[in-house]
Amino acid sequence: MHAAALFYFREVTRVGSIRKAAISLNVAASALNRQILKLEDELGTPLFDRLPGGMRLTVAGELLLRHVTSTLHDFDRLRADIDDLREARSGHVSVAALDSLLVDFLPRALVRFRADFPAVSYSALALQPADIPQAVAAGDADMGFTFVTAQIPPTVRFLAEVAAPIGVVMRPDHPLANRLQIEFEETRPFNIFTQPGPLPRAAEADPDYIAFRASIAPKVLSNSIQMLKLCVMLNMGIAFFTRLGFLHEIEHGDLVWRPFTSPGVNQLRIGLLTPAARQMSPPAAQLAKRLAADLDRFASV
User: Fold this and answer.
1) SUPFAM superfamilies this protein is in (predicted)?
2) What does each of the 301 residues of the chain score in pLDDT, given as a tens digit?
3) What is the CATH number of domain 88-163+269-300?
């Protein structure tokens, strides 16, 4: 059925008259009536009862009206989405994130986004987990990735989340690589690499992990995840991270990741933070949609 016929049908149902609908739509009443008759002919049943006081929907007409309302609503939403895409062709987007997200996950997402929006520019800054909500709330970043916690400003919200437990990253030939889960104490005999700075607030849900981290003396301490990754790949030791910073290496079998047995640390989640009320720019809004979809896909793997 032609879209114009659906618009005509909806307007007749709204005003209850062919003549009034024709005036409202600025078309000839005879042309509008032909469209209604054509609809009735295609469906094989009357859509209106023609009464002296106007047009009244039949049962079949009521069913068609539900379809038309849904169809035209979806069409209006599609048109709005297309307008958003047109406006998002250029601009700048800023992202604040955990260092691990900037190593693999976010660059790959930007490569895919750039294929559709080549004129958009980006800034991506690594911040401490607790600083990211404030950066998004203050407008210093359009969006951010950090550990999910209830302690965030009311002006931001998590658009999407994914499970992100901290586990052991190591080479596939490491003695612990054949374990499905690893006890904290099993890692002590090996060189351990860590990043400086406080643990994410979400880790407070696992006091055993906090106590264990405080008790170890790291062999290498660096704020560069790239350096720690290379140290692991050179078989110098092991590191404690989420999988998100090592997706490429894990996928190609260069590294493996194993979870800890402690239930609390396995409850950690990473989320995409966006403004709760502040309107995002068209390119930022489009990127946020894509990143949320990427997190959903990752969660299903």
Assistant:
1) Periplasmic binding protein-like II, Winged helix' DNA-binding domain
2) 467 788 888 889 989 989 998 898 889 999 999 989 998 898 899 999 988 888 899 999 898 888 888 777 777 666 656 655 555 577 889 999 998 899 889 999 999 998 888 888 999 999 988 899 999 999 999 999 999 987 888 999 999 999 989 999 999 999 999 999 999 999 999 999 998 877 766 666 788 888 998 899 999 999 888 899 999 999 999 999 998 889 889 999 999 999 999 988 888 899 999 999 888 888 898 899 999 999 988 876 6
3) 3.40.190.10
Q: Looking up tokens 């999988």, which residue turns up?
A: 243
* Collapsed DSSP state (helix, strand, coil) of residue 34: helix
Task: Please state the pTM of the whole predicted model.
Answer: 0.66
The CATH number of the structural domain formed by 167-267 is 3.40.190.10
Task: For residue 19, give Cα distances in angstroms to 41, 50, 268.
Answer: 21, 13, 63
Say yes or no: do domains 3-86 and 167-267 share a fold: no
